[in-house]
Design goal:
With 362 residues, this protein is of the alpha+beta class. The protein is built from 9 helices and 17 strands. One of its GO terms (cellular component) is Fanconi anaemia nuclear complex.
């Protein structure tokens, strides 16, 4: 059974093909508009199967532009035929499996988190110097170890294996050693982020990963603070952006400028923020707390979206606390005859309570 759901601009979901193999292939269709035709998007696996079939897919899409079920049925039949004629992948030689087993014996099977049936994809648990567990994902080529494995890791910076060892043949142990060296370079960064996660109310991301260096923290009164740590110098002053009503964030900006000299790289980012801003950051909130996370994630009161091109609403009205994206408010104010402009700044009225609001022109 296909799993297809409507979206704002068309529909998206999964196409089930392959009979007993039950392969799920992701797809998305953007509906036709007056000035643009319908557009079909596919996952890498589906694109691989449909290679050379773009004209056939376009014909089916045009013929069934208003019939989702009809298009999916015809697309499914086409993909089923292509799956049946696709040649099976050749298995690696027996020596490949013998080598993988020896490598796993050497590093310890207790590190294995998961392994594919063909032994060509592994996930290994690697613990860093602070006791944090990290997953090293490896996709092994058929000519391993002559060619390096492809890696899947969660790190703030790109990671690639150096697969030229003059004294010995590379192995899984080589990959683990290089991954441990990469982990060691990020220990201070993760110390700072873990301290924030454990002691402050992190609004975003909901589930932090080891590759992320940004956090959005609640600071009270429905205002928040976005910060992005420097990967190479995580204890230094991060990039900061205050989000919320001006009457709340203006004093914090003043404290930041007036007390910036108090920032000390020997302290945690959290301790420095609280000292410099003269602010006690709220602790983590439990589910059901009266001041819930939803109150910090209110959509822009003009476009009714929370994220717009990756940005949260940056401005809030001092009168009614309605939040706005800077670009949305700028466009709104430009349409009002009463709006005044001084240099690159617009001054006008809130679209909800008519209190004075201002923003930079976009």
């Amino acid at each position: 059974m296909d799993l297809i759901l409507p979206t704002a601009d068309g529909f998206a979901g999964y196409l089930k093909v392959g009979g007993a193999s039950n392969e799920l292939l992701a797809l998305r269709v953007v509906s036709a508009r007056s000035d643009t035709p319908a557009r079909f998007e596919a996952c890498p696996r589906l694109r691989q199967l449909l290679e050379g079939q773009s004209e056939a897919v376009d014909q089916r899409l045009r013929r069934n532009s208003d019939d989702v079920a009809g298009f999916l049925a015809e697309l499914g039949e086409l993909v089923e035929r292509l799956v049946r004629v696709e040649p099976p992948a050749a298995l690696p030689p027996a020596a490949f499996y013998e080598l993988i087993v020896r490598d796993l014996d050497a590093v310890g099977w207790n590190l294995v988190q998961s392994v594919s049936a063909a032994l060509d994809e592994l996930e290994l648990l690697v613990v860093d110097g602070a006791g944090r567990g990290h997953t090293l994902g490896l996709v092994l080529p058929a000519d391993y170890p002559h060619s390096p494995p492809k890696t899947r890791v969660s790190l703030p910076s790109p990671f690639a294996l150096r697969w030229l060892a003059p004294a010995a043949t590379p192995s899984l142990a080589t990959a683990i050693e290089q991954f441990q060296a990469a982990l060691a370079r990020h220990q201070l960064l993760w110390d700072m982020l873990d301290d924030l996660d454990a002691n402050t109310w992190v609004l975003e991301p909901k589930k932090p990963s080891r590759e992320g260096v940004s956090r959005r923290l609640a600071i009270g009164s429905h205002s928040s603070l976005e910060l992005e740590l420097c990967e190479d110098s995580p204890a230094s002053l991060p990039v900061l952006q205050f989000l919320g009503a001006e009457k709340v964030v203006a004093p914090l900006r003043h404290n930041l400028n007036a007390r910036l000299s108090r920032w000390h790289p020997g302290r945690t980012v959290r301790a420095n923020l609280e000292d410099v801003l003269l602010l006690q950051l709220p602790p983590p909130q439990e589910a059901g707390a009266q001041d819930s996370a939803e109150s910090y994630a209110i959509e822009c009161a003009i476009c009714y979206s929370y994220h717009l091109e990756g940005a949260a609403p940056e401005i809030a009205c001092d009168g009614c606390s309605k939040p706005f994206h800077r670009s949305c408010l700028s466009e709104w104010l430009r349409g009002l005859a009463t709006t005044q402009q001084s240099f690159n700044r617009l001054f006008g009225e809130c679209p909800y309570c008519c209190a004075p609001v201002a923003c930079e022109a976009s």
